[in-house]
Structure formats: structure tokens, C-alpha cells
Amino acid sequence: MIPAALLAALPISLLMPIAAHAQGAGIFKDADLTLGEKLIAQSKCVECHTRKVGGDGSAIYRPAGRINTAGALRGMVEQCNTELNLQFFPEEVSAIAAVLNRDHYKFKP
Ligand code: HEC
Q1: Counting atoms of ligand 1 from 1, which one is nearest the CA of 86?
Q2: 49 in ligand 1 pocket by Cβ < 6 Å?
Q3: Which of 109, 88, 89 is nearest to 98 (CA)?
Q4: 44 lines ligand 1 (CB under 6 A)
Q5: The whole model's pTM is what?
Q6: Which of 33, 45, 87, 95 is the least buried, fewest Cβ under 10 Å from its Cβ?
Q7: Residue of the nearest CA to atom 25 in ligand 1?
Q8: Atom of ligand 1 nearest to the CA of 76
Q9: Tens of pLDDT along 56-94?
Q10: Do the Cβ atoms of 67 and 73 come closer than 8 Å?
Q11: Contacting residues for 87 by C-beta, under 8 A, at least 6 apart
């Protein structure tokens, strides 16, 4: 007889790896990079970052800083989305984060 508690725990342990994958860099797997590039150009991201750090603005992106995973990068873009009231859809946030990852952060997929 298998204890009921063990049976109840089984589905969760089976789903865990899938959930962990969704949180990782796999989140950029289906990202539309062309869309991300377009949105970054339209949203004046670079203009504002350049005002802050000079140069081409890319110094604002610090891969060795507090953002150190793909999930954290996407979260930061989501936070900008909310704070700046850019009204991106979730797939647009992912697309932007994917472009930043490809060009600047290079977190492992
Ligand atoms: C109104 C000005 C402004 C605009 C517009 C803006 N940002 Fe930023 N962004 C900032 C500032 C200021 C920081 C630095 C915040 C800090 O270091 O605490 C920052 C930081 C970031 C970071 C974190 C960098 C790091 O590694 O710590 C990301 C990612 C980012 N911005 C993405 C974007 C994207 C994508 C857009 C456009 C959709 C955008 N930002 C638009 C001002 C702006």
C-alpha cells in the first residue's frame, strides 16, 4: 500500500522541473526578437538611459549587477513597463528582455 501522503506529493514533484524551466532562460525560447527591437526603439529606452549614463546608453545594462538571471532581467523590464506605464503585453515584455539578453546580458538559455 502506498501512503496517501506520498501519492498526493507525486504530481507536484513531477511538475517541479517544468515550472523551474518556465522560470529560467527558457522564457526567451519563443520570444519575437524583431518585435523586441522595434519596441525598444519606439519606447525611448536608449534615449533615457543615455541621459543617465552617457555614451550609447548601454552602460546602464550591468550583467554583473543585481540582475543576474534571465528571470530577473524579464522582471526588470516588467517593472519598467509598470513604472513608465508603457502598457506592454506579457509577450512584448519577453521580447524586449530577450533582445537585451542577446545583446547585453547573455544569460544562458
Ligand atoms: C525615463 C527614463 C527611462 C526610460 C524611458 C527607460 N529606462 Fe530603463 N532605466 C532607467 C534608469 C534611471 C535605470 C537605472 C535604475 C537603477 O540603476 O536603479 C534603468 C535601468 C534599466 C535596466 C536595469 C539595468 C541593470 O542591469 O541594472 C533595464 C533592464 C532597463 N532599464 C530596461 C529598460 C527598457 C527595456 C526600457 C524601454 C522599454 C527602459 N528601460 C526605459 C531609466 C529609464
Answers
A1: 38
A2: yes
A3: 109
A4: yes
A5: 0.81
A6: 87
A7: 61
A8: 29
A9: 999 999 999 999 999 999 999 999 999 999 999 999 999
A10: yes
A11: 81
